[in-house]
Structures are given as structure tokens and as C-alpha cells.
Write a structure and sequence with these properties.
It contains 19 helices and no strands. By secondary structure, it is mostly helical.
Length: 545
């Protein structure tokens, strides 16, 4: 997505240009989004705690998570299609002062989105039993019936969430990143509040009602933020047909990737449902733990980095474009190698601390930890994926990432089919980690065709240095477990906290020391980053004084 102007549209002086402040501005905006996302994730964690406490990881939770995949699919499809197809055109008109035309694009995309999502949801509700049986063939008849009942409730939330993608992107078009992120807080609050208040009356259906309420709150907050701009909706444009053609042209290649994504997601649920009761729940809980740092850092970073990449690409500054990408990837490699080692090594203690209480027993912890190990192993490629995809989009290349994505999903489905029986939920998680690794390798290899200055040697050297630091950290964490003893199921909460805190201090210190000892640009990145952070803190303290 490129072609963004460096000046704000008339009458919108509070709107910052996408590349203001360079990489530092990108990181500052990312920090703000990360803070809000962290708050939303805390609420999401509370939601998982409430689900685990009230329902454990039994067939009811399996049914809810399978039903939830339907509105989440509509939401993700809308986001993946609209971000590259709607947002660049919307921003281009705003930056040129053509607000009426920008909102004409919003209107026509909204009509298309509404028609498609309503038709899809109506068909899903009408055939809920068939849909439930297809998504989870391993469920017994009673669980399929419960899933179908939940589908009828939550499917309508998908329509609301799909529209909230459009309103969220419109806010981003005005460079208002905080309000869309805040909407996730309302979305996350609905289910746990409804469970606490209504679980006795509605059972697992309280979660479905909470999802509907949360989705309505999300889009309501967006509409409040856009209230002053909605007056432009009723103003037609002679160029509307041309704008529609551009939207469809940009969206067409992404359709294949979106379909592939949903195939991969449904395949995960399909094979997880065959692993036995609690399989879908264990997979979901494990994946949610692994996804938390991804949402806080690379996903938040990608929201702000995309317009920055686009500005550099539009100016033809390929050295700056690839240099910025290299710095971001190297930083992500450092952070997520540390997190991957910690997640793989400490998967069971992490799950026990987070979830093992109430109806969530030791067997549920073991199953969830078995998935988390392999999701944790894929953290680095998952982090890279979040940045490489918008990087390609900034250069108006959707074909390359689509090819890599389809290859990755195909690998995921094939490996899931081969591994779910011998490895259970762990095999399904391993399939996803392997598919993300393949995708990132393909995207990395194909980058060489974009820039002649890229060489394999420095990349391999950086990977080797970070890998050595990761190996030293793994050894240190194993040593902590040997000295202190790994807390087992039922261990007192203070004992669990002390063990994980000691592991964090020893593991983080070992990784940092190893990185600083091994010569290379990674050491300079840490030193420079620390210097900038200290300088920023001193500057802020000086202003307050």
C-alpha cells in the first residue's frame, strides 16, 4: 500500500503524516498501540481465566471455540481484504482533500461488505447443524448440537465485526491509531462479564451473548470517533465506478490468500476435534499464550510500519527501505528468540500459572503445554511474517506474499493430517510452526529479487550469533529448573511465581550477556537502543522538572 502523502488533509491538522519522525516516530506510535493492546490482552487473559474457571477445558468449551471460529473468520477475512484494498485509496483521497470521494469509497465498500456478510451469515445460521458437523467431525452428537446452537448466536457477531474492520481502517486513514485499538477492550470485556453475571442462567451461551455485546461496543466506539466525518457519506461521486474498480483490482490477489488462511484455520479445528475431548480447547489456549507477544509487538509495529514503508517506497529510497526492514527484523529476532526459548523450556509452568485452577485440571495443563511447546518454537517466523507481508504490500506486490502464503498453508494442512494421530495437539501446533517457517523463508529468499544489495552471508551470520545466545539461554533455564525444581501441579502460587521470576532473570540476563559478548551488529543494536531509551527517559524527566 503506497502513495500516501506526506502532508495531512485540509482541516485535519491533528493528523500526522505516516512517516513523520522516521523510524523513531514509527516506534513511538507502535508503543502507544502496544500499551492499549496490552490492556486488551489483559482483559482477554481474564476472559480465558473466567472460561477456564467456569467451564474448564471440556466439550462445552470445545463447542464454543469451534462456533467462535465462524465470526472470527468473517472478521479476519474482512481485515485481510480491506487493509490492502480499501485503506490506500481512502487515504489517497483524504490526503488530496477529497473527503467526499474518500467516503464514497467507504460507502460502496460498506455496501459490498454488508451484502456478502449478511448472505454468508444467513446461510450459516440456516445450516448450523451441517456447519457444526463439518467443522468438528470428531464431536459426538450432543456436542455437535451444542455447537450448532452456539453458531446461531455468534454468527451475527461476525457481521458486526466485519463492519468494525471498515470503521477501524477509516480511523487509521486519519492516523488515529489509538481509538481502533481501544475498541478491542470493549470486545474483550463482553464475554467474561456475561459469564460472571449470567453463567447460571445461560451456561456456555453466556459467552456467545457477551461476544455480541462486545462486538456492538467495538463498532459503536468507532462510530463515535467518526461522527464528524459521517456527514460525507451521502455525497456521491462521479468517480465511484473508477474507485470500485481499483478496490476490486487491489483485493483480487488477496482473495486467494484469505481463502487459504481460512482453510488452514478450519483444518486446525477439524484435526483438533479428532484428538479427543478438550483438544480444541487445549489448542486454543496454547495458541493464545503464544500469540500474546506477537500482538503486542510485531502486529502493533506492522500497523504503523506499513505507511512508513510505503513512503520510503514512493520516494524510491530503496536503501532506506531495506535498511529499516533489516533493523526491525534484527530487533524482532533478538526479542523473539529469547521468548521462543523461554516458552519452549517453561511451557508447563507457564500454563499451570496462568490457567490451572477451578475446572482447569492437571490433564488440561499438560495438553495445553503440549501445544504451547511447538507454537513457541514458531515465534520468530511468526514475528517476521507480521512485518514481511506489509513490506511487500508497500511495494505494490501482492502476488509474492500470496504465493508464499498458499505454500505455507498447504504445508500446514498436509502436516496436520500426518501428525495429529501420532502427536495429538502437539502435531497440529508443529504443523503451523513449520508452515510459518516455510513461508518466511520463501519471502526472505524472494527479497533478493527486490534489491541487489542483499547478501546471504550477513543473514546467516546474524542467525548463528542469535542462535548461540538462545542455546546459552536454554541451558541456563534448564539449570534453574535443576536447582530450584520445576513446580508441579498443585504447587502453591508463590512457589510458581518465584520459579518463573528466577527463570526470567537468569534467562534474560544470560541472553543479554551472550549477545553483548558475541561481536556483531546485534550488540550494537542493543547498545544503541538502550542509549536512545535512556535519553528519551531523561528528556521526559527533564520536561516534567
Amino acid at each position: 500500500m503506497g502513495g500516501l502523502s506526506s502532508s495531512p488533509p485540509p482541516g485535519e491538522a491533528d493528523v500526522a503524516a505516516p512517516d513523520d519522525g522516521g523510524l523513531g516516530g514509527v516506534l513511538r506510535s507502535t508503543a502507544a498501540i502496544t500499551a492499549i493492546t496490552l490492556a486488551a490482552k489483559v482483559v482477554g487473559f481474564v476472559e480465558k481465566q473466567v472460561i477456564a474457571y467456569y467451564f474448564g477445558a471440556d466439550a462445552r468449551v470445545d463447542a464454543y471455540f469451534v462456533a467462535l471460529s465462524i465470526p472470527m473468520a468473517l472478521f479476519l477475512v474482512g481485515r485481510e481484504l480491506l487493509e490492502p484494498a480499501f485503506l490506500p485509496l481512502f487515504v489517497r483521497h483524504l490526503d488530496a482533500g477529497r473527503k467526499a470521494r474518500a467516503w464514497g469509497v467507504f460507502a460502496i465498500v460498506g455496501l459490498l461488505l454488508g451484502g456478502i456478510s449478511l448472505l454468508a451469515t444467513g446461510a450459516i445460521v440456516f445450516g448450523a447443524e451441517t456447519v457444526a458437523g463439518f467443522l468438528a467431525p470428531g464431536f459426538d452428537a450432543e456436542t455437535v448440537a451444542l455447537t450448532a446452537s452456539l453458531v446461531r448466536w455468534v454468527a451475527w457477531a461476525g457481521v458486526i465485526l466485519a463492519f468494525s474492520v471498515l470503521t477501524s481502517l477509516a480511523l487509521n486513514g486519519y492516523r488515529r491509531f489509538a481509538l481502533p485499538a481501544s475498541g478491542d477492550l470493549l470486545l474483550k470485556l463482553g464475554p467474561p462479564i456475561c459469564v460472571v453475571l449470567l453463567a447460571a442462567q445461560l451456561e456456555i451461551h453466556a459467552l456467545a451473548l457477551g461476544l455480541l455485546i462486545g462486538a456492538s461496543g467495538r463498532i459503536g466506539l468507532h462510530l463515535i470517533g467518526l461522527a464528524k466525518e459521517l456527514r460525507f457519506l451521502g455525497r456521491g461521486s462521479r468517480e465511484m465506478r473508477s474507485d470500485l474498480d481499483q478496490v476490486l483490482h487491489l483485493a483480487a490477489p488477496i482473495v486467494v490468500a484469505v481463502i487459504a488462511s481460512q482453510v488452514g484455520e478450519f483444518a486446525d479445528n477439524y484435526f483438533a476435534s479428532k484428538t479427543g475431548e478438550g483438544g480444541v480447547a487445549a489448542r486454543t489456549f496454547g495458541r493464545k499464550i503464544a500469540e500474546l507477544p506477537l500482538l503486542l509487538v510485531p502486529y502493533a509495529l506492522s500497523i504503523v510500519a506499513l505507511p512508513h514503508f510505503s513512503a520510503l517506497a514512493a520516494r524510491g529510497d530503496r536503501d532506506g527501505l531495506f535498511g529499516t526492514l533489516g533493523d526491525i527484523l534484527r530487533g524482532l529476532a533478538l526479542l523473539f528468540t529469547l521468548l521462543a526459548v523461554a516458552t519452549v523450556t517453561l511451557s508447563e509452568p507457564i500454563v499451570r500459572l496462568l490457567f490451572e485452577r477451578g475446572a482447569f485440571d492437571a490433564s488440561a495443563s499438560a495438553a495445553t503445554a503440549g501445544a504451547l511447546v511447538f507454537y513457541g518454537a514458531g515465534l520468530v517466523p511468526m514475528a517476521f511474517e507480521a512485518i514481511l507481508m506489509p513490506f511487500y504490500f508497500s511495494m505494490h506486490d501482492t502476488r509474492t506474499p500470496v504465493i508464499a502464503h498458499v505454500a505455507g498453508v498447504g504445508t500446514q494442512v498436509l502436516l496436520s493430517a500426518l501428525l495429529w494421530q501420532p502427536m495429538g495437539i502437539g502435531g497440529i501446533a508443529l504443523a503451523l510452526a513449520a508452515s510459518k517457517t516455510l513461508k518466511v523463508l520463501l519471502l526472505g529468499v524472494l527479497l533478493r529479487s527486490k534489491h541487489d544489495g542483499l547478501h546471504v552471508g550477513p543473514v546467516l551470520g546474524s542467525a548463528a550469533r542469535i542462535g548461540l545466545a538462545g542455546a546459552a539461554t536454554a541451558g541456563a533455564l534448564i539449570g534453574v529448573g535443576a536447582v530450584l525444581g520445576v513446580p508441579q501441579s498443585g504447587a502453591p502460587l508463590p512457589e510458581q511465581l518465584v520459579f518463573l521470576l528466577a527463570s526470567a532473570v537468569v534467562g534474560g540476563g544470560t541472553f543479554l550477556a551472550a549477545t553483548l559478548v558475541i561481536p556483531g551488529p546485534e550488540r550494537l543494536l542493543i547498545v544503541d537502543g538502550t542509549r536512545h531509551l535512556v535519553g528519551a527517559v531523561r528528556e521526559r524527566l527533564g520536561r516534567r522538572a
